[in-house]
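Changelog note: in this version the structure field was regenerated for every chain. One regenerated record is shown below for reference.
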Amino acid sequence: MNFDTSCAPDEMERRPCNRDAVPIKVNRVFDSCSDRECIANVPVILDCGELPCNVQLVKSKCVRVADVCMRIEPVPFNRGFYNIDLTFTFRVELLAYTHACEKPQLLEGTVYASKSSILYGSESNTQTFYSNGSKLGKTDACCEVVNLPSANVQVVPPLALETKIGTVCRQCEPCQNTDNFPPTMRTVIMTLGLFSVIELTRPVTIMVPTYDYTIPSKECNVDTETPCAVLDRMRFPTEEFSPVMLSENRNPGSPSPDYKPDCKCHANFNFNSGSDSDCHLEKEQDCNHHAKC
């Protein structure tokens, strides 16, 4: 397969035109979804067992996603659709206070949360074997090929929206005598906010245009200057010593306070893109907007 080798003049200066196409193996995303989920009132399984009775206040120090267990199953009567069941494992670090102004005690625990989603992942009745021993697809008891898509989930660090002390039912061992223990126990109850993206992918072979091989143009220079010379080239951080007032905060993309529009038309104005009157009109609008001239 050959692609069109005609390129614009500016593209010819930056890179050569594509001349051929090659097949590559990639994981194509057949379906995906994003979710903003509030996981409310989930108990924390503390490593120490029960929350000490003298703890009066708890605060969240750190929450991270330790693991995600995923299971994919075909949706009955909907060919090509799959149910992705996810179980999140969160590791949390808590600061436990016996009094408000005393040094806190560090506690650690685990939180579990589950969710599910239905996505389209297409169908495939092939098996793929690789030289490294891995393979895709398998046969079931009826000698039918089962080739499920691959699921992946992307998450950002979760948000600890609420942390409080509560009680949950005590979990005892099967052979443990429960007569000596109360039915409930003190623990930490949390509400977490989680942003996630779920994707279903399959390996496919596609054709892509190719260009010449290239090497990086940036040289790996080693800085041989002394530390003091490097410091002398740094700009003095004046803004760090001058706190910004609330009224001085600007929205991203807004012009700098020192910005002054150009209210004059110069001789190098591009007359191919408009007339001189258009230039004055544009300059006048810019000046009226910023009121700098």
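Spot check on this record: The chain has a mean pLDDT of 78. The CA atoms of residues 156 and 195 lie 6 Å apart.
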